[in-house]
Task: inverse folding
């Protein structure tokens, strides 16, 4: 065990110059996004003020997609190279993605109640999103199982690759099946324009910055977790050898 | 009617993301105490 009682918290921090810049930028843009999302932009004709929830709901799902994309790339690369970097990148991105996806389900329910009259409907988009949430929670559960680190990482990588199929199903569900959920509100041919579109854009930039900050810090924490796990393993082996020698 | 749901949504997002960020920082600091300084960052 290392004695760090006299070490300053700055030395122990997972922050760096880059993450500080990202963090302060995230706070500044989030402030602007709140100003435009809640004060400057007006209500929409059909959704009224509940449109404001879409400025955080849609960017959250975009961040979840990006995170699960990183999990896919990390999982494939881990199976090819057996590298700790890719394994930890996949795991960190999955956890951050699950947080964003949880927010997607919650803000979607809060948007649905005043707009559809219900918090939840077994619509193809909502159901496939709930399944996606459960699949990635399952991925995180595998990472906490009591296997050897190599077996755990390999099994998680396989689940990380398979789970991406559900991301595709979620994204195209509004085109493949008829349901209650509307098609794309934002995109190349957005249903809303001008100040509302700008408020959504600011929300997207803000959550992209927040997501980047979380991803980098979570990766650094995952790296520390791995170092602690390895040192515990080395200590346990040394103790066993000592006991056997006695 | 709408503003209650809007406020709940924004407070939830801000609360969850702030809480998660605080947990990450605290966990990083706690774990760093048990790891030698030269091994604290990925440098491969």
Result:
């Amino acid at each position: 065990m290392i004695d760090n009682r006299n070490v300053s918290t700055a030395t122990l921090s997972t922050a760096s110059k880059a993450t500080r810049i990202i963090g302060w930028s995230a706070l500044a843009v989030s402030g602007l996004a709140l100003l435009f999302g809640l004060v400057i932009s007006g209500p929409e004709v059909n959704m009224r003020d509940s449109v404001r929830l879409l400025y955080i709901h849609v960017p959250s799902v975009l961040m979840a997609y990006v995170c699960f994309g990183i999990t896919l790339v990390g999982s494939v690369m881990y199976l090819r190279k057996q590298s700790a970097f890719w394994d930890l990148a996949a795991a960190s991105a999955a956890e951050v993605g699950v947080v964003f996806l949880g927010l997607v389900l919650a803000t979607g329910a809060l948007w649905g109640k005043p707009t559809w009259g219900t918090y939840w409907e077994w619509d193809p988009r909502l159901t496939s999103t709930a399944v996606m949430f459960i699949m990635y929670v399952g991925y995180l559960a595998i990472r906490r199982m009591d296997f050897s680190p190599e077996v755990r990482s390999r099994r998680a990588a396989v689940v990380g690759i398979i789970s991406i199929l559900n991301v595709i199903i979620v994204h195209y569900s509004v085109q493949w099946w008829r349901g209650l959920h509307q098609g794309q509100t934002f995109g190349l041919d957005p249903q809303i324009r001008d100040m509302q579109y700008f408020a959504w854009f600011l929300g997207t930039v803000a959550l992209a910055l927040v997501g980047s900050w979380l991803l980098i810090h979570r990766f650094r924490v995952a790296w520390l977790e791995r170092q602690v796990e390895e040192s515990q393993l080395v200590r346990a082996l040394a103790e066993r050898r000592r006991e056997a020698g006695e | 009617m709408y503003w209650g749901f809007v406020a709940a949504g924004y407070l939830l997002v801000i609360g969850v993301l702030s809480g998660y960020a605080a947990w990450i920082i605290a966990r990083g600091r706690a774990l760093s105490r048990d790891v030698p300084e030269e091994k604290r960052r990925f440098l491969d």
The two ends of chain B are 54 Å apart (CA to CA). The mean pLDDT of chain B is 90.
